[in-house]
Structures are given as structure tokens and as C-alpha cells.
Design goal:
single chain; two-stranded antiparallel ribbon; 2% strand; globular
Length: 172
């Protein structure tokens, strides 16, 4: 069996993980990815000119996926599954559909976006998700609440996170 490679694209540089490397994939410190993600997302969704920052769907999305995938549920051997992450994304997509059909526009669905925060908190409290999910949702919901463009940017960012999660953690 060959040596697995860290496919992070950043920071890992394709270094070996797994047998012979001294580091198993389940022993990666999640904050290796979480810290740069949180620093990057704190800069917001838009650049100075008001355009969506490209790294939201590339580098930052990949760091978020790896942070979420390597994070462990306290007291459990497992981490976040793709199904659990997808469940949150499906709720975000449902809100997007409701926004598209809302007669009152964005103010009509804004509270549903905000409700994602306590849903993530409940999942962490039930020990069915790692705290990283709550941190991810808290930061992104805060950025998504100001207006419809910000919310739709969150949808794009979250979709890219899902794609990278599948790439790095398929089968989980």
C-alpha cells in the first residue's frame, strides 16, 4: 500500500501522511487548517471594490473542509461526516429557495439564516458534531446576514467547502 499524501494544497506541500510518515490522518491538528481559515474569513466575503473574494471558493474553502474534517467530536473517535455537513448545506439551500420565492424579499428569510447558529450549537451540544462546525456557522452566518448578496456568497462558499470535504474525506 502506498503512502497517502496530504492534498491540502497549502501548508502541506504534498508531504506524506500515514504509514511511515509519523503522522496518521486522524492525528492531524485541526487548527493547522482552522487558524488560517478563521483569519481569512475574518476579512469578509468582499474585497475593497465590493467583489467576491476568489479565495472563498478556493483556498479558504479547502482549509474549512480540512478543519471540519480533521476536527473530532469531544469524547468520540469520529469527526464530522459528509452527511452531517450536507444536512446543514441542504438547509442553507432551502433558505436560498425561500429567498427566491419570498414576496417580502430578504427580510422575510433573514431570521432563518440566523437560526443556523443555534442549530449548529445544538448539534455540538448533542455531541453529534465538533465545535468547529459551530465556529464555521457562527462566522459565516454573521457575514451572510447583512444582505442577499452576502447570503448568496455564503451559499457559494459552503458549496465549495462541501466539494473539498468530499475530495479530502470521501467515504466518511
Amino acid at each position: 500500500m502506498g503512502v497517502m499524501r496530504d492534498r491540502s494544497g497549502g501548508g502541506g506541500g504534498g508531504r506524506p501522511i500515514g504509514p511511515g510518515s509519523g503522522q496518521r490522518p486522524d492525528q492531524v491538528d485541526p487548527m493547522t487548517y482552522g487558524t488560517p481559515y478563521l483569519s481569512g474569513i475574518d476579512a469578509g466575503y468582499f474585497d475593497r471594490e465590493g467583489y467576491i473574494r476568489a479565495e472563498l471558493v478556493t483556498d479558504l474553502a479547502e482549509k474549512a473542509a480540512q478543519w471540519l474534517g480533521h476536527s473530532r467530536i469531544p469524547g468520540a473517535q469520529s469527526g464530522l461526516s459528509g452527511t452531517q455537513l450536507r444536512r446543514f448545506f441542504n438547509r442553507v439551500r432551502l433558505i436560498e429557495q425561500q429567498l427566491d420565492g419570498a414576496a417580502g424579499g430578504f427580510p422575510e428569510v433573514r431570521h432563518r439564516i440566523a437560526a443556523l447558529k443555534p442549530l449548529a450549537a445544538a448539534a455540538v451540544g448533542r455531541k453529534s458534531a465538533p465545535d468547529a462546525l459551530k465556529q464555521f456557522m457562527d462566522r459565516n452566518v454573521a457575514l451572510a446576514l447583512p444582505n442577499p448578496q452576502a447570503f448568496r456568497t455564503f451559499v457559494e462558499h459552503f458549496q465549495a467547502v462541501i466539494a473539498y470535504f468530499v475530495f479530502h474525506f470521501r467515504g466518511r
